[in-house]
Amino acid sequence: MYGKAFAPEYQGSLTTLSVNSSLTDVLAAGTEQLRAAERAGARAEAARSGLAVAEAHRRLGQVADADRAWKASYRSAREAGDGAAMAWALWSGGTLARQRGAFPLAWRLLRLAAELGGRAGDVVVRGYSLAGMAETGRIQGDYAAVTSLHEQLLAEARKRGEARHTVWALEGIAQIHRNTGAYDTAYAMFEEAAGIAAGAEDRRGHAWALRGLADIVSVRDGDTGRALDLLSEAEVSCRAMNLSGALAYNHKMRGNVLYRAGRYEQAREVYAGALAEFEAMSEPRGTALSRLGLVKSLARLGRDAAETAADLDELAVALDGIGLRHAHRMVERARTELGLARAGTEPGATAGAGRTEAA
User: What percent of the chain has pLDDT over 70?
Assistant: First the structure.
């Protein structure tokens, strides 16, 4: 039903690159081709190769380089009059904006990319851009607004037999189910995504699916050993492809699993490592979530309650600034869990206090 996964963001002379190519290899090949295209005055090819450069920088956590690269790709595409290439550059810029926590900018760029891709007749970039919008809303916790879009994109991907996009959509819907407490449904969807990704040789999608399964196994079943094994398996792919962001989120989830198991000292160490990884790539969402795990771990290890409360206050402000609705609720639940509920709030009064969301 599904063919081998491919990477449509590797375009022009770079279409021979595999979806599983190491990002350092993608960056090297893309940079070489970009320079050759610029020397030849081939603006369309410069735009296409520049897209791969931008995506490699983004996934390696090199934010400033990624920002320059997608903008240069867009300028080259505009000069060439290539509407589809312009849409792909905007998609890359919107995805980077989401990664940086600039959600209003992400919405704007991704919406423009979808519109431009539609006018240019490129159904793939239109689909990727709509998917980016859906993921942005999901990350912000606005599930009601984007669940139907996720489901629409899943149906379209299944119909076309696009493994990579099917896996993405399954994982997104599974995450929504997981965060609303439907663990069995979430597990089944993560499991299907893992199977499709493995069959299509999509190591990135497979790694994210394993992370989702590890989360469910930990929170639903309390099976710490299996959860850690799944994360270790996913980490192999992340390291092989130099997926800096995915690896950092893998480590943050490892901290979650250890924390749930009451292994607070180990959780503290892992959260601290993940925090450093996110800070190195200027990723505010991962930074805030790792800080939250670290604060909770330190509290369990005996840290002063007033210091813990002050840190949670800072995190609440930071998460409000980023626009992460469900992550803000996680801070409120942390207060209750640690006996630090705000004045006038009874312990356990926070909505959904018995359920821990994951991001």
Answer: 94
Give me the amino acid identity at 270: V
pLDDT 10s digits, 89-138: 999 999 999 999 899 999 999 999 999 999 999 999 999 999 999 999 98
Q: By the 8 A CB rule, do 40 and 77 touch?
A: no
In angstroms, rounded to a whole number, what is the distance separating the alpha carbons of residues 206 and 183? 19
Task: Specify the amino acid at residue 177.
Answer: H
SS (H, E, C) the chain: CCCCCCCCCCCHHHCCCCCCCCHHHHHHHHHHHHHHHHHHCCHHHHHHHHHHHHHHHHHCCCHHHHHHHHHHHHHHHHHHCCHHHHHHHHHHHHHHHHHCCCHHHHHHHHHHHHHHHHHHCCHHHHHHHHHHHHHHHHHCCCHHHHHHHHHHHHHHHHHHCCHHHHHHHHHHHHHHHHHCCCHHHHHHHHHHHHHHHHHCCCHHHHHHHHHHHHHHHHHHHCCHHHHHHHHHHHHHHHHHCCCHHHHHHHHHHHHHHHHHCCCHHHHHHHHHHHHHHHHHCCCHHHHHHHHHHHHHHHHHCCCCHHHHHHHHHHHHHHHHHHCCHHHHHHHHHHHHHCCCCCCCCCCCCCCCCCCCCCC
Q: How far apart are CA 332 and CA 309, in angstroms?
A: 11
pTM (global) more than 0.90: no
Name the average pLDDT for the chain: 91
* Residue with tokens 């190195």, as numbered in its chain: 280
Q: What tokens appear for 85 in the block?
A: 């290439």
Contacts by residues 32-38 (CB-CB < 8 Å, ≥ 24 positions apart): 37/12
Integer Cα distance of 141 and 145 in angstroms: 9
Q: Which two tokens stand for residue 214?
A: 């590890």
Mind listing the pLDDT tens digit for each residue in 23-60? 999 999 999 999 999 999 999 999 999 999 999 999 99
